[in-house]
Amino acid sequence: MLKITNLKLLSTLPTTTTLQEQALSILTEPFHDGPETQQAWDELQCELWFLTSINELNAVVVDDIELLKRALTYTEFENDLDYGASISLSIVEDSGKGLYLLMPKTFRTELHQHFSISDE
Known about the structure:
Helices cover 38% and strands 22% of the residues. The chain is an alpha+beta fold. The chain has one domain (2-114). Strands 1-2-5-4-3 form a five-stranded mixed sheet, sandwiched between helices. The longest helix has 12 residues, at 17-28. It is globular and about 40 Å long. The relative contact order is 0.19.
């Protein structure tokens, strides 16, 4: 699992440039531009998590597992991307902290099953 708190690091994800561009477009859509988006992320402590397999979860701390479960349970929106990927947003804290999950759609389904979370 990779965590990103700075939009400039989106290009470091081990994925295609196309997926990075699609994700950036969705992340900045509600804002005027990249710097305004980053300012909101800093204020609200937003993060983007890039996940690809259950094996990654073995090294994840308990607090992050709880945040992941909350994010999977209370998804605000989910967008399909190319290559079978999706990006979703969940507000995971009362402070307004947003957690974006970027992962293969099949893995999202696998996580729902792994944590016994029903799809609504």
